[in-house]
Amino acid sequence: MKIRIIYYLEEAFSSFRHNWVMSFAAILVVLISVLLVGSFIMIGHVVEQIASDIEEKVEIDVYLKDKAPKEDLYSLERKVKAIKDVDSVEFISKKEALEIFKKRNKNNKDLISNIPGNPLPASYRIFLKDPQKIENVATKIKEFSENETTVEEIKYGREFVRKIFAVTRWIRIIMFVLIVFLIFASLALISNTIRLAIYARRKEIAIMRLVGASNWFIRWPYLLEGTLQGLTGAALAIGILASVKYVLQGKLEDQLSWLMTALKVSPIFYQNLLLMLLTAGIVIGAAGSLIALRRYLKT
């Protein structure tokens, strides 16, 4: 068994060296395929991070009447906190609301100087566990505040929120479809490339079958060769992706700090991506070899 494994490995490496043109073509196909898949996964992850950041900033503002009794305000706060999808409730007093307004408009001194007293209402700022449930939570707050003397207005930008969720949902779907398409396209390309290499050696395969070699005895060297090609192409693609990411982070850190925040994710993500791309390269190379061999090993 040990001798046979050594034979398979020697045959695979020998074929890899002697058919370097076709090996180079196969490696190039895997490199481009893994590079595209990896790029789309990284872009998709950045888009997902940005979309999640936007979704997390979605909030409900409940503006309160100036003369609302404190007991009623406490009662309203308890009811809001009791809603299962509510994560936290922040009370903003009239004074705090005015300070926030002035801070946001600090460059517009005319506007600030012409404010008569403090026309801004106190409010509750409500953050959710799941931003997708914002309409349900807003509806519940409206329901139990209809007959109360505390709530002046409830705002959460319904149309804007709907558009944000629709856009992020479609982005996720499109990225998923593109990645799946690229994986299948890669498999087709590599199998066709390997098929050309095997076609050039079809007589050798036919002779091996005539002398009684089993299908798997013939398959193993090609399978290992395809695996080696896939591994090499994937490793080169990972090196290119890592280099591009490093350069982008260095050049765009000041100009696009928000994007850099999305790129600076947990190292675990990149470790998982590295393992996934290496595995994808190996699987594409091995599967491409098996698919290409089917024609010549039909019983």
Question: What would you say this structure looks like, in words?
Answer:
The model has no long low-confidence stretch (mean pLDDT 78). Helix 2 (20-56) packs antiparallel against helix 11. The chain has helices at residues 2-18, 20-56, 70-82, 94-104, 109-113, 134-145, 158-199, 202-210, 215-252, 257-263, 267-293; strands spanning 60-64, 86-92, 123-128, 151-155. The chain is elongated, with a radius of gyration of 31 Å. By secondary structure, it is α+β, with helices and mostly antiparallel strands. The protein folds into 2 domains: 2-54 and 164-297, no CATH class; 59-155, Alpha-Beta Plaits (2-Layer Sandwich). Belongs to the ABC-4 integral membrane protein family. FtsX subfamily. It holds the Pfam family FtsX.
Features:
single chain; 299 residues; alpha+beta; Alpha-Beta Plaits; 2 domains; 4-stranded antiparallel β-sheet; 8% strand; membrane
Low-confidence stretches: none
Shape: elongated
Walk across the major sheet and give the strand order: 2-3-1-4
- The residue fraction in helices comes out at over 70%
Main beta-sheet annotation:
4 strands, antiparallel
Number of domains: 2
Q: Distance N terminus to C terminus?
A: 25 Å
Radius of gyration (CA) equals 31 Å
Which structural class matches the secondary elements? alpha+beta
Beta content comes to 5-15%
Number of strands: 4
What is the N-to-C succession of helices and strands?
Answer: HHEHEHHEHEHHHHH
- Note the total helix count: 11
Mean pLDDT: 78
Give a concise summary.
InterPro entries: ABC3_permease_C, FtsX, FtsX_ECD, FtsX_firmicutes-type. The chain has 299 residues and is α+β, with helices and mostly antiparallel strands. The chain has 11 helices and 4 strands; from the N terminus they run ααβαβααβαβααααα.
